[in-house]
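Shift notes (night). Ran GatB/YqeY domain-containing protein while the centrifuge was going.
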Amino acid sequence: MSLVDTLNGDLKAAMKARDKQRLSVIRMLKSALMNEQINAGHDLTETEEVSVVSRELKQRRESLTEFENGHRDDLVAGVKAEIAIVETYMPKQLSDDEVKQIVAATIEQVGATGKGDFGKVMGAVMPKLKGQADGKLINQTVKSLLN
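Came back to this:
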């Protein structure tokens, strides 16, 4: 079952429950997926769907940070609710230890020895962890293991 099918089912459920917040977020996700599909010119693969959802999640997290820094408490609660809804459509996130193990194995595979190999390691590890871990966490883990 594709993500769009799941979203359609959840959209109907949100309509029946009169959950305006959930309905709005699901419509936004569905719209983003459909726009990406039109731009790609083909049905999206699971990886592409995860990429779109993770991009939407990243945008909301950045908004949350900006609202918190700007002391806009009236908007913070709404964005946190949106983040919680979007996260339900993401694949299971890996723990810090699991990310560390995968990064360590990748460093061994590519034969990285120091900071100069950072780009090579990131290029190899990102496809493995796409959608399963936050990019900042991966970045920090790679830096700490290469030092």
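The chain has two domains: 3-87, 96-146. Residues 2 and 45 are 9 Å apart (CA to CA).
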